[in-house]
Design brief:
It is a single chain. The protein has 14 helices and no strands. The protein is an all-alpha fold. It has one domain (4-180, 221-255). It is globular.
């Protein structure tokens, strides 16, 4: 299972840092430091979103719109695809919620990376798009391909991501999305009756035998995919305590409002 750091190492055939350096006129080491300054913030933002049903909706909706970001993730870095800025800003909205949080993250990361805050602000949507592209590919390969394909199809037909996902929360998505997410947050999940041999059960009770025990149902592939995706939200490398404290303070102040 990949984490955010490994996603960026693999982005654009392993040339993401060099491509970022060329695009923004800095050295590859500075580009890597900029990425490493942002990944803990991405991780905190994504993990915070997984604490609520609405947050998971936002993540899945953003992934359902990340086809261009996935192409950018796989590209050789020559040029920026059309609409990448929009996808990058959507990704930042999913991770951070507000433009103010994004700005504060950029300022904090700029200090850690030793780069101007204005440059970090410009790099944020580009790096966020690479990360979202890597997460999209991981989700497609990890059991969520059917779900994302359904969402993309619904959006293409004019339903929009929000409407399609809202319908999914009512149980219409592949894999019983509403039941799966409801179970993750402690809401009752309807249990399906287990098939069995009623005659054998009755006779077993009469003659002191043990009734057959129901076998646990195999884990739904969508639920497994969500757990896998959540694991990918880990930063993947040690984060300096000072940096983490500053990021946590940013997110704490935002959530307390």
């Amino acid at each position: 299972m990949l984490n955010l750091f490994e996603i960026m190492q693999n982005a654009q055939g392993g040339n993401a840092y060099n491509n970022l350096a060329n695009q923004f006129g800095i050295g590859p080491e500075q580009a890597q430091k900029a990425v490493e300054a942002l990944l803990p913030a991405f991780s905190l933002g994504l993990q915070q979103q997984t604490q609520t049903l609405e947050g998971w909706q936002n993540i899945l909706a953003s992934l359902g719109q990340a086809q261009t970001s996935a192409k950018f993730f796989d590209s050789d870095g020559d040029g920026i695809p059309d609409h990448l800025e929009n996808e990058g800003q959507n990704a930042l909205g999913t991770m951070f919620g507000t433009a103010e949080t994004t700005q504060r993250v950029a300022q904090q990361a700029a200090q850690f990376a030793g780069l101007p805050a204005a440059m970090m602000q410009q790099m944020l949507p580009v790096i966020a798009s690479m990360v979202m592209g890597g997460l999209f590919k991981g989700a497609m390969n990890g059991g969520l391909g059917g779900l994302l394909a359904s969402m993309m199809q619904g959006a293409a037909m004019g339903g929009g991501m929000g409407g399609g996902l809202a319908g999914g929360m009512a149980g219409g998505m592949p894999g019983g999305m509403g039941s799966i997410l409801g179970g993750m947050f402690g809401q009752p999940v309807p249990q399906q009756p287990q098939p069995g041999n009623m005659f054998e059960t009755i006779l077993g009770g009469f003659f002191g035998g043990r009734a057959p025990q129901p076998q646990p149902a195999p884990q739904d592939p969508v639920a497994a995919g969500l757990e896998m995706l959540k694991g990918m939200f880990q930063t993947g490398q040690e984060v300096h305590t000072t940096q983490m404290d500053a990021l946590q303070q940013i997110f704490r102040q935002v959530t307390q409002r």
